[in-house]
């Protein structure tokens, strides 16, 4: 069983990709909506939440953990890998490698929460692969809240996205990393505002490719994973919008439960 956690509903974009690429495996999802967004919180607080989330998923039977949150991936991955023995995947490395591979003009933009952007983790990874690449990062602190509210098509959201992306657009980037798993929920809007010629890199899509490759190379672990369509979705705080957005995005009925951590 895959165990996936995020600060809220954004990690469902990773779940959707798992449904498409690895449809036979059971998924256990936890969204820490009571503490969202993570991107405005301090490092130690995020690490604390990430440890609690991972413990919850493992106790429920997860054999592989996917950190479907760029902020937690940026600051908590190393701690989690030292503390837990199960395979742990994060969304930053796969996206960074993909962006380097697809850029044609060596100008890559990154959008994410303040914590992710301030960590400069994407810059470090990209420069390690190719020091010649120019990187332009921009924090977009309002987008997670807008997505959590379900304001996908509101005029306010369109104006805010346009304003956030303008500094990157004038830099003539040809590749943009969506450095938050909430952002694919407004991917079409982001594509329109940044321009059709810019290649979007979805960190959720890229981490699923890494998991798929890992399973092919580790048949013993693959055989230990539970095969089932009886997926479970837990949240630390529930509101009616979570059920509506989850079901609409995943194109199936989702019956979220409250998790007690």
Keywords:
single chain, 261 residues, alpha/beta, Rossmann fold, 6-stranded parallel sheet, 4-stranded parallel sheet, 49% helix
Give a structural overview.
The protein is an alpha/beta fold and 261 residues long. It folds into two domains: 2-90 and 205-258, 3-Layer(aba) Sandwich (Rossmann fold); 92-203, Rossmann fold. Helix content is 49%, strand content 17%. The chain is built from twelve helices and ten strands. It has a six-stranded parallel beta sheet, sandwiched between helices. The radius of gyration is 17 Å and the shape is globular.
Please render the helix and strand layout as text.
Blueprint: E1 2-6, H1 12-21, E2 27-31, H2 43-59, E3 64-67, H3 70-83, E4 88-90, H4 92-102, E5 107-112, H5 114-119, H6 121-129, E6 134-139, H7 143-148, H8 155-169, E7 175-179, H9 187-194, E8 199-202, H10 203-217, H11 219-224, E9 232-235, H12 240-250, E10 257-258
Parallel strand pairs: 1-2, 1-3, 2-9, 3-4, 5-6, 5-7, 7-8, 9-10
């Amino acid at each position: 069983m895959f165990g996936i956690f995020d600060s809220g509903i954004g990690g469902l974009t990773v779940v959707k990709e798992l449904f498409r690429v690895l449809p036979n495996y059971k998924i256990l999802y936890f969204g820490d909506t009571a503490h969202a967004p993570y991107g405005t919180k301090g490092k130690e607080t995020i690490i604390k939440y990430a440890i609690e989330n991972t413990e919850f998923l493992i106790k429920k039977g997860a054999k592989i953990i996917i950190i479907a949150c760029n902020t937690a991936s940026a600051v908590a991955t190393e701690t989690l890998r030292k503390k837990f023995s199960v395979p742990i995947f994060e969304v930053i490395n796969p996206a960074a490698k993909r962006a380097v591979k697809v850029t044609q003009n060596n100008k890559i933009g990154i959008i994410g929460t303040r914590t992710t952007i301030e960590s400069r983790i994407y810059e470090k990874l990209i420069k390690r692969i190719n020091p010649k690449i120019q990187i332009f990062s921009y924090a977009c602190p309002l987008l997670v809240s807008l997505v959590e509210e379900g304001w996908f098509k509101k005029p306010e959201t369109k104006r805010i996205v346009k304003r956030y992306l303008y500094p990157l657009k004038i830099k003539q980037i040809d590749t943009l990393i969506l450095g938050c798993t909430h952002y694919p929920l407004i991917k079409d809007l982001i594509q329109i505002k940044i321009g059709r010629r810019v290649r979007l890199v979805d960190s959720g899509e890229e981490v699923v490719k890494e998991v798929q490759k890992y399973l092919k190379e580790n048949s013993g672990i693959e055989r230990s994973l539970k095969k089932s369509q009886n997926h479970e979705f837990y949240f630390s705080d529930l509101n009616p919008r979570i059920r509506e957005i989850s079901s609409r995005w995943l194109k199936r009925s989702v019956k979220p439960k409250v998790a007690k951590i």
